[in-house]
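[audit] Reproducing an earlier prediction to check determinism. Same input, same settings, fresh worker. If the tokens differ from the archived copy the diff job will pick it up downstream; this log only records the rerun itself.
[audit] input (136 residues):
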Amino acid sequence: PPQQPYPPQQPYPNQQLYPQQPYSGQPYPQQPYAGPRIVVSQPGGVAPNSNTVLAWIACCCFFWPLGLVAIIKARRSEEAVRAGNMEEARRQGESAKRFAIAAIVVDIVLGLLGVAVIIILFIIDANDPDREPWFY
């Protein structure tokens, strides 16, 4: 059997528009003055830098064993800050920085040594015509 069509809708009643509200042109009332601000610092002072970002970069992009030690030191620095021990946090943060820099330096030195070994082997191989090439 065919379906019956929907019954016709009733038209919407006439809608009245709200009248425009008058604008007095007066600005907002001035905010009350809160008085001087008092800043209370932590007893240990400002939190030292934990060097977390440098440690992660050293671990992911350079010599990872030393970078991993740097990450552990940076984590200990952040834990010391949370505990309120700013001197320990500063020591661990500086230690993390030293390990991260060591990771970068060791990686660069090892890379340069590798390039030097390849160049030396290539020179030795090029000067000995009877020798079997090493790079095949």
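[audit] rerun output stored. Observation attached for the diff report: DSSP finds three helices and no strands in the chain.
[audit] end
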